[in-house]
From TrEMBL:
This is Coiled-coil domain-containing protein 169-like. It comes from Lingula anatina. Residues 19-81 form a coiled coil. It comes from the Eukaryota. The keyword Transmembrane helix does not apply. InterPro entries: DUF4600. The gene is LOC112041764. The lineage of its organism: Eukaryota, Metazoa, Spiralia, Lophotrochozoa, Brachiopoda.
């Protein structure tokens, strides 16, 4: 009987140790999840900032296009392009070409940066989803381990309870799984119930 009690204690110790290890795993996964959420938030802010910058550049492009239209209208009003000197026309064309090239270059640069930020955001979001899945799986394993632990301990107590009834020839109340009670035999040979901790 002492051997069985020792075995029961050893099993309980092993199961509790296993449960504690799973709890540590869940804590670590939660920590990784929180870090991923922080990274996710950072990427979200960077993405929103980039979108705002792009909107500003789009407004700037529209303003410059409007300015160009106004300048063309002013030129037509003041003088006809045919009447302008060739050097003035070349200077105006080169200036407008440079402005257009600069704006095109800025637009391409910001489109590329936005694309890179979007890809990084997607990667961070996928990582966050994987961590959430890991946490969920770890929680399920912990619940299953605890359920198995409770079932094993209950079955061990049930066998022990049965042996006590047979050995001491006493009538004991049935073992209750929900309240997690066990029978303790006192030195006088009678039985009492004690709440399991």
């Amino acid at each position: 009987m002492k051997c069985e009690l020792a075995h029961e204690r050893e099993m309980k110790k092993l199961l509790l140790q296993s449960r504690d290890e799973w709890k540590l795993t869940v804590a670590e996964l939660k920590k990784r999840y929180d870090n991923a959420m922080h990274d996710d938030y950072e990427w979200k802010i960077r993405y929103e900032t980039q979108v705002d910058i792009n909107k500003q550049f789009e407004r700037q492009i529209q303003q410059l296009a409007e300015k160009l239209r106004n300048q063309k209208a002013n030129i037509k009003n003041k003088t006809d392009l045919d009447n302008m000197a060739e050097t003035d026309l070349k200077r105006m064309i080169s200036q407008l070409t440079r402005e257009k090239g600069n704006l095109d270059s800025q637009l391409k640069d910001f489109e590329w940066r936005l694309d890179q930020e979007a890809k990084a955001f997607i990667r961070a979001d996928e990582k966050r989803k994987m961590i959430l899945l890991d946490i969920s799986q770890a929680k399920n394993v912990i619940k299953e381990t605890e359920r198995q632990c409770d079932a094993r301990l209950f079955n061990m107590r049930k066998k022990h309870y049965k042996r006590l009834r047979e050995r001491f020839k006493v009538t004991l109340p049935p073992l209750d799984r929900e309240s997690n009670k066990r029978v303790v035999v006192a030195e006088g040979g009678y039985a009492k119930q004690a709440q399991m901790k």
